[in-house]
Amino acid sequence: MCGIVGLFLKDDALKPQLGEMLSAMLITMTDRGPDSAGIAIYGDETAGQIKITVQSSTPESDFPTLEKHIRDQTHLAKDKLNITMRDTHAVIVAAETDKDHILTLITDNHPNIRVMSQGQSIEIYKEVGLPKNVVERFALTQATGSHGIGHTRMATESAVTTLGAHPFSTGSDQCLVHNGSLSNHNMMRRKLRAEGVNIQTENDSEVAAAYLSARMSEGETLGEALTSGLNNLDGFFTFVVGTKTGFGVLRDPIACKPAVMAETDAYVAFGSEYRALVNLPDIDQARVWEPEPAEVYFWSH
Fold first, then answer.
1. Distance in angstroms between the alpha carbons of the first and the last residue of the chain
2. pTM of the model
3. CA distance 295 to 261
4. In angstroms, rounded to a whole number, what is the distance separating the alpha carbons of residues 29 and 271?
5. 88 has which bridge partners?
6. How many Cβ atoms from other residues are within 10 Å of residue 206's Cβ?
7. Residues 62-79: tens digit of each pLDDT
8. Same domain, 59 and 194
9. Whole-angstrom distance, CA of residue 227 vs CA of residue 234
10. Strands across the sheet containing 174-182
11. pLDDT score at 146
């Protein structure tokens, strides 16, 4: 049992409140998963720049070392480089043309630093602990943006670690949170890794994220990739998936995991339970419904 939430803003006036609203929704779901928690925020993008969110268990030494290593690379555009530290995470802002160089530098030289996400707008913050504590550690109530998704985990398939926490990101500006359990994740993991897809954990949810990223890298839209997942991902699942332009929802054909959605002129919201939505503005005027089994829902800007 896990708790998942999502919030897609239609009204730009609500962007400064995204973190506050999404954090409150996630904290409400604490009793569905006390092991770890995380949130993905899609904020404003800057043309020609990339954001890479990284994590370390020893940030006080690892992040300054990483920053010096990056700045020592003479071929990188230093004028666009900025590194902001938030507890165990840091966000590296750099020229988009330098993305591959920086990711390779991290992988090859900094084994204690893990990449949480990369893209033009996404930032992912996740750690072991209760949602309230994770929200406070990263000041997530102050986050601004157009949409975001969150997860609080009760571990069943793999260890309680930072890497095992959700959201999982396996593609640029892509992420996924999952409530449920996949039965064929070991087979799919082997298949995807054989195709060159990078999967860092033994968590079944990361396999789902990697599967969708692989399908989209082959030219499928998110909706098409989710539809393909109905044929290739076995088990029980409710997925909420984020992309740079919006977010999607999919439940398995049996739909045994709870889910509820609400829509107004100002937002679309998702929660594992309705109580995650009750404090949203004008919720009493929202259209509220339970997503249908095996039906893809998607909203985009």
1. 31
2. 0.96
3. 13
4. 9
5. none
6. 26
7. 999 999 999 898 787 777
8. no
9. 13
10. 168-171, 174-182, 235-242, 246-251, 297-300
11. 98
Query: In the chain, count of helices (H) and strands (E)?
Result: 7, 16
The domain in which residue 296 lies consists of: 3-44+127-300
Pair (134, 201) in one structural domain:
yes
Record the tokens describing residue 66, joined without a space: 């990483």
At 203-234, the pLDDT tens digits run 999 999 999 999 999 999 999 999 999 999 99
What average pLDDT score do residues 17-29 get?
98
Query: In which residue are the tokens 């396999």 written?
Result: 207
Q: How far apart are CA 49 and CA 39, in angstroms?
A: 22
Q: Sorting pLDDT into bands at 50, 70 and 90, what band is 1? A: confident
Residue 2 annotated in active site:
yes
Residues 152 and 219 in one domain: yes
Catalytic one of 1, 2, 31, 97: 2
Domain boundary at 89, 120, 151, which?
120
In this predicted structure, the answer to whether residue 131 has a pLDDT above a threshold of 80 is yes
